[in-house]
Amino acid sequence: MTLQEASEIIDYFHTSTPEHLEVLGVDPSRLPPSAQWQRRYEELFDQPVEQRSHFLVSWFEDNQFVGFSTADKITIGERANMHLHVKEASRRRRGIGVECVRQSAELYFQTLKLKQLFCEPNAFNVAPNRTLQKAGFKYLKTHMTVPGPLNFHQAVNRWVMDRS
What we know:
Structural class: alpha+beta
Shape: globular
Mean pLDDT: 94
Oligomer: single chain
Number of helices: 5
Number of strands: 6
Distance between the termini: 27 Å
Strand content: 25-35%
Radius of gyration: 15 Å
CATH topology: Aminopeptidase
CATH class: Alpha Beta
Low-confidence stretches: none
Number of domains: 1
Strand order of the largest sheet: 1-2-3-4-6-5
CATH superfamily: Gcn5-related N-acetyltransferase (GNAT)
CATH architecture: 3-Layer(aba) Sandwich
Order of helices and strands: HHHEEEHEHEE
């Protein structure tokens, strides 16, 4: 992902309906202001990949930005957690996510030299859970947690792709 494309992430969250954010497990009151979020991405992109706290991947279909994946909780050479989002509701539930997740996972494994890649979507959000299963992730468990700084306490399903 380029720095310019990172603005798509900010736009995605700030323009999502409260209902969609709830399905994602996102607390709207935890979204940083757009300008602050953009500055954080500028700082991130100034760092070498191996020193970044996050790794961002854009998804395109027919030269149009359709979604993105991010990795965080990165331990180079070991593990990371990924997130996945199809930006427009009209493109969801069409299977685009499966191939995007497969390609993103491969990029994470290669670039970050991972042994394990985890993903913890909201347990009640069916689409990403099905996508992860179809993309080759293995279900580990369902548990209660706050998965990230934008999220509220919720049930999540923990999935893993292992290359140990």
